[in-house]
Amino acid sequence: EQVAADAENLLGPLARFRRILENARRVITEGALITATPTLPGFQFNPPSMTLGFFEDWHRFEFKMRARDAPLNAAANGLLTFMADGIIAADIPLSVFVAHDVAPSAPQATPARPIYDTVFASYSHKDTAVVLKVEAAAKTFGMTYLRDVITLRSGEDWSVGLEKMIDDATIFQIFWSAPYSQSMHCRREWEYAVGLRREAVRFIRPVYWLQPMPDPPALLQHLHFAYQPDLVK
Question: At 25, phi and psi to the nearest 5?
Answer without folding.
Answer: -100, -15
